[in-house]
């Protein structure tokens, strides 16, 4: 059999590929989804288990593990289409399962994203990969939002209460923000831009975490007085997985392996590194020595800061943003926190 015959036979046996499918975009989207998933599992599982006291380690890790699984099932049963489906209200989609084969193999599409480009031309968000890739990518965003929120109540919340909280908050809070901004809701049509989750993920999880910490209440006094991590090396390993996974977080937001995704990945790492160095430098200047926990905090504030504009700003701006994210939160945590009794109550 000659070379041409072999090639013909291979093509004949290959699965059918629809004309709209871009294999590069699809491969990158699945890779980005996996990177975001690794941020949660095992990234934040390891980080949470190691950054708290030993007696809370298993409970903290289990909170993250449970949230990842619970969000996935809720997502495919009803929540994906509440966030990215047909409009029910200007801020909410019609809930329905995203499990059928016919639904998952068609070209990805966000139905309510249709908008006017010119007088006689309209566009709708339609990436060049199947709906299954979009459903899973957006699930990893929903999951990490709940797991980030969990960081505010580590050592405070009973696991049974958390098990009830996760699906309720996902359905009644996360899907509202996601549809309003990314799913074609009213904020999307107002022109609000959230590149990769500044509002939908970080602002929502931050405000919800602050509110939850306030209502759950402070930890025991004996625990508040000394709160050392139980394993610093594992804490750094979890932080490293979180940092590296963020390339998929921001790099996958354009729904394509394009120039925007390349710029976003570079900006993400530049801002995180700058923020880490600024936070560490401030620790040295004011306290006389660097702090490994401070370095991790600086890294995380840098990653959060760059996310809303990772693919929209130039790298020099990412450095400026890193300087701000490494200094402003440092002041609020190291100076204002010690002077404000309300912040002390919530933060403990």
What is the secondary structure topology, with strand pairs?
Elements: H1 3-13, H2 23-51, H3 57-84, E1 87-89, E2 92-93, H4 101-105, E3 115-118, E4 121-123, H5 131-150, H6 159-181, H7 186-190, H8 198-216, H9 221-225, H10 232-251, H11 259-287, H12 292-306, H13 315-339, H14 341-347
Antiparallel strand pairs: 1-2, 3-4
Describe the 3D structure.
The protein has 348 residues and is mainly alpha-helical. The protein folds into 2 domains: 23-231, Ammonium transporter fold (Orthogonal Bundle), CATH 1.10.3430; 258-347, no CATH class. The strands form 2 sheets. The protein has a two-stranded antiparallel ribbon. Strands 3-4 form a two-stranded antiparallel sheet. It contains 14 helices and 4 strands. Helix 10 packs antiparallel against helix 11 (259-287) and helix 12 crosses helix 13.
